[in-house]
Amino acid sequence: MEYEKIFKILAFYSAFIGLLYFYFGLIQWLIFLKVLKNNLHFSADLMSGFTLLVIGGIYVSGVKRLLDGEIKGLSYPLVATILSLGVALLFLLILVANSIEYYVIGNEDYAGWTIIQDIRPELFLAPLSMPIIYLLWKLIIKEKLVKPI
Amino acid sequence: MIKFTSMTCSGCPGKKFCFTNLADDTHLISTTQSLKKIRVALIGNPNTGKSCIFNELTHGKQYIGNWPGVTVEKKEGKLRYNSYEIVITDLPGTYNLGAISIDEKISRDYIIEEKPDVVVQVVDSTKLERNLYLTIELLESGANVVLALNMFDQLEAWGIKIDVEKLKQILGLEAVPTVAIRGEGLEELVKKIVQKGLNPASNPIPITYNRDIEKAISQLIQEIKKIGIKANPRWVAIKLLEEDQDIIEKVKFYGGNEIIKISKELITEIWDKNGVHPSFLISQTRYNFIKEIISKTVSRKVETTLTLTDLIDHVVTHKVWSLPIFFIVIWSMFKFTFDVAAPFVDAIDITFSLLAEWVKNAVTIDWLGSLLADGVIGGVGFVLVFFPNIFMLFLYMSIMEDIGYMSRAAYNLDSLLRRIGLSGKSIIPMLLGMGCNVPAIMSARTIDSHEDRLVTILVTPLIPCSARLPVFIMIASIFFAKMASLAVLSMYFLGFTLAILIALLLRKIIFKGRILPFIMELPNYKTPTMSLTFSQTWNRAKHFLKKVGGVILILSIVMWFLLNMPYGAPIEDSYGALLGKTIEPILRPLGFTWEIALALIFGFIAKEVVISALGVIFSGAAETALVSILSPASAFALMAFVLIYTPCIPTLVTIKNETNSWKWLVVTLFYELTLAYFIALGIVLIGNLLF
Amino acid sequence: MGAWGFGKKRRGIFHHKESDFGNNEIPLALLSPGSEGTVSHINAGRGLWSKLFGMGIGVGSRIKVLANDYRGIIILVGNMKFALGRGMAMKIFVKPLK
Fold first, then answer.
1. Within chain B, which residues score under 70 in pLDDT?
2. Quick check: A110 and A102 in contact, CB under 8 A?
3. Which of B155, B192, B288, B372 could potentially form a cystine with B160 if both were Cys, beta carbons 3.0 to 4.6 Å apart?
4. What is the predicted ipTM?
5. Is B180 found in the same domain as B236?
6. What range defines the domain where residue B140 resides?
7. A118 and A95 Cβ atoms separated by less than 8 Å
8. Residue B139 belongs to some domain of the structure
């Protein structure tokens, strides 16, 4: 039915967003390992890069199954999106916490902190998963391809 | 006379009935009316929404404590309905009333010994057949059971229908469909509780075992009636045939040694005749009986479509992705606990510092001012400063548990950590310990096995916490220049290695508990109920403060005394320095002097205090002083010593709190001091040999 | 057994055929993902029995294996999902359904 088309869209979009996450994860690692120069003063740490790589990896590993039209293929964009949104929420909270430290409390440890420091890939990549959420919602809630329990 | 009826009470706007906590009587019209007390025990399988029901009924106001002598959380609450005061005790979630694990023991003992007026079993209606096993055991024990058929709304999604009336009829008990998260069915439940509480008609459970077993039961009942044991004789007989060790002990206690002998003979008879142990036959009969009940009361549309849970699990329990996902979850927990709580921690810190300053200036008597400011206010602030971190940690763990991830994490990790003799969930405290040992030790609550939990708690203080880091950095940068970061890293390596080794040692030698075969239910994923989570977390964190706070405060004052008395004297003449000088001889082989000993004593309060202590002791010239006193080997030994020697006071108190005894606090103190000493000694000896 | 996807190298314990065991029963640990069976026997002590029965797994339960790897087995009993360690899965014997 229509499903095949949606699966194909999901496959290509997963590949796209997965590679993006992968790219940023790699950058984080390269900056951390001092291979690349940190001109924009990104916050780059090992675990953050790891997270991005894993999310990218999950997206990408689902592509083949999605192209084959397997229902189980849906798990990959599903879980990757959940993870990316979870991590985005976390960093949003940290952003807010840091702002409070800087503006409200005026903590010296935070002198020289800027909002830029806290705009991380986890945050700005997350909205890109909107289309995936919509497609998954359509398949699962509306079409009931999978029991929403 | 004022009549209380189920109408909206001004104290609980929006609530359909007056659920008040009787300790907080502010909005009651009259308190002179005496209330009839009904004692209720809440029991049920894990993942049935029992906490939600408890929370709804007690209106979020609960007393959280510990069951005496063990580390399992005990929750109690009250509610008033009409002229009745209903006291509810929340028992640990359990699948049956055997007495293998602590949770089962606690639940079973409470029901048999405390004999609550009503036992409310919370049931997951979509998994009725499994939940009924516990129901049967409850009925056999003579309990007055009311079923809360919770999650009733989910039956539709699963295509299941339950004939509730028939179920009540066959089992001979009351059953109320409820949807706890929406508050539905609760009033009906409370009504039935009151009804059953006032008319405890204990119905005989219509289950009969096979002929041999029934004969054995009758025989045993005769004997059991002769001794003074306070449980239902038939139930005791069944338990004896099941060779329940706990009950055997209790029967012996009441002088029933003969009965035990007879029961053992009967067991052998039945075993020979039927080829299996009677306990197996008994369990199987219950199981078959339940299947019969289900066939008569439940109809199910069997569908085999995948569920959302299945989809998510496909990746979460994936060969490749499960561990990376776990690390992401743990790292997030770390960041959430420390980074997001940071503003609150700093806010509290600053407030108390300002307060202390103000008090110091305001109080004219010098030493009193110092005592109040540094000792008392400092002490209190010190305790409160942990609260945000603990709150965040509990919140995160609670949410993870609620959505259902924890069981998957346990499964993923368990197989790996089994080989080192640790349970899967032990890794969480160890990772959290890198931030602060206090919340790390508390996170050990998720570990199911008693022994594993204890071992994990004892080993976690070895993990280098963030307070030790400044000390490492300071010493390393003074003595090791280019190699400083390597030196610091080696401390982390040392900490983790020691933790694993000691854990293995403890497991092999002291806690020789059998490693239980692993089986765990994987409940469906669900969205967390935030109001419940928040109130539970708040209660837990509050409870922590109460228990831990008092002791930390007292110890802070003691430390203040040691370091500031006699008042006005220079630091070399304080009682603390005296103590340091007394200890010095022991520490000399390590290359430490009394000043270092004193700084280490300071470190007892909190590890990062060692730095400021050194600053004060050496009047600001700590670096030059240290270089002249310590050799590089001794410096490295000092780092190791600070890593291992004893957890800070808050950690020690947390250990006491979590293990519910002073014993383990003392054990940790001693083993860590000894370990620190010998490792530091070893480092010095090897260092002096090599260089 | 072909559904394993382990590749020819990793046969290990999986080269047993079902007929190697008497009575047509095999330990749960040896069932491949997707297969089903009814529990015929539990090779364990009292404590474990009562725990399994209490959780809803008894003689006669119909089990479907969802996953099986070095960590353990994930099974479906009715609408309940469980994760078992390998050790535990070796103690539960099932009669496979074709």
1. 1-34, 60-61, 66, 68-71, 99, 202-204, 421, 511-515, 568-571, 619-620
2. yes
3. B155
4. 0.93
5. no
6. 18-198
7. yes
8. yes
